[in-house]
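Bench notes, afternoon.
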Amino acid sequence: MAITLVIHGGAGNIHPGMMTKEQEVEYHNGLKLALDKGYDVLNNGGAAVDAVVAAIVELENNPIFNAGRGSVFTKKGLNEMDAAIMNGIDLSAGAVAGVRNIRNPIRLAKEVMLHSGHVFLSGAGAGEFALTRGIEMAPDDYFFNKGRYDQWVKIRDSDFTQLDHEEDNLKGPEPDPEYKFGTVGAAACDAHGNLAAGTSTGGMTNKRFGRIGDSPVIGAGTYANNNTCGISCTGHGEFFLRAVVAHDVSCLMEYKGLNLQQACATVVKDKLVKMKGEGGLIAVDAQGNYDFCFNSAGMYRAVRNNEGLERIAFYGE
């Protein structure tokens, strides 16, 4: 069994021509820092769930990712964030949706799991709960990112939503093809073979009506079960919701006997493709095996284990 941590910073039309060398370094360093923070927990005998939170906090703190500080703007020009965490030991889980001014939504999701008596809290109610638990808040200015704001301004008067931060060559009201699904996530196997997974996102630029994607929905964008796997997804949330992607991978392992890679490929490269759903996932099982599986051009991703493996990648194989 290997102690393993896998993380992602989003998937989508990520190809070598779209990033400068400086941007590649920035993403590499951002993923590396999150990997370091999360793996330090595992390396010191910590629990998978704590490693997942530690890694995601670093991604939420980095404005290049669409989560926490880097969250995109809604139709009303606000930042509304979603997050979820699940512990594979006992299937306990916590999730929040549509929260505002929460510095690290993944920490709030963990508090929901441990102290609320519930699984899923939303909006103002989740904010009230955050205050009772002493969760760190942040003003609107903390979440303001000029690049994200400018991207929203380009489409705020249209009915389009943007699948995360497009490049600067957006022309007119049509969403740019140079999109990325910038959700962040982590999955871990600790020294005891326990699994955990978590996901955090700022959602879609110009989203309306309190739209919620797959990220905070247990079984869709996030799932962990010691008997099977830990999964965090990133992609076009509507398809991942309808396909119940994360739980489907687990079910294929539990009921059909597929291994981790087979189960991930069946869902991401067959089921989702047939639905025209784009994106990917990261996965780990209780033996410490891992998988990066995506049907998009690329996915920001990284892995480290106690057998000396460390890998950080952006583009397709």
